[in-house]
Amino acid sequence: MKGMRRFKDILIKDLWIKAFSIIFAFFLWFSIVGGESAEEFFTIPLTIVKIPENMIIKNELVDFVNLRVRGQKAVLNSLNAKQITVELNLKDAKEGENVITLFPEEVKLPEGLSVVRISPSQVTVELSKLAEKALPVEPDFFGTAAKGYEIGRVTATPLKVEVMGLKEALKDQEKIKTARIDLFGKNRSFSVEADLKPPSGNVYIKGPKKVQVDVEILEKSGRREFRNIPVKGSGPSDGAVFHPDKVTLVIAGPEAKLTDMLPSMIEVVIQEPETPGAFDLEPEVTLPEGFQVIRISPEKIRVKVEKHS
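Above: the chain sequence. Below: its structure as tokens.
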């Protein structure tokens, strides 16, 4: 029992001194290990900044650069790639080919770290002046209007839009289309705000990327032939003779209504002369509203008016 008590006394004696010594030893170890200088490799996106006004990058650039970063090991172990920024500053670049040097000291890093090596250390940038061109807007459609209807006049506002891009790219640009506009089942005129499709190549829309499109929907026009339509007389004569006494008509009008049109709805009339004789006269055709005569055969009717005794 005495031996056990003595062991406890030794263990408890100067406990706070022992605890402090352990803590101090830990921090000393951490400062030695954590303070060791180390290097790590990082792959960082290359950010393009300050492109000169009315200029465009003509060539393909690298998307990433490789960095070797030096600093305390503990700091490097906690470093995230998002904390590093590599910028390609083009504020002093000119038209044509520019060789831009990436300096390690320009890389944005947390304090206490430095860039030992950057690859590539130079980037070639070819700049070209932007040209402008006004392109006519062409509305693009899909689907069909309701049966018996068709598209009439289509107007885009504005009629043209300004685009900008490389001169050689603009040469092949003749028009700019809208996003597709649905015509399915339409039986009346309508207006819609439509997005413009992005041009192909290095060409960009300069202004608003939407236009208003006004679409006229009309009843589809058709033609139909009517045969043996009787010729009627109108006038003071009594017993005038018509030769021929029937005509053939080609009539144009709304397709759906033409199908339902009856011969009895057509009236062909000759204004009879007041005096006896033989006359070649053009008949007058009366049709329902919305229809018109395309052709009548024969164009003239022989009218004979007998002299009364």
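Confidence is low (pLDDT under 50) at residues 24-34.
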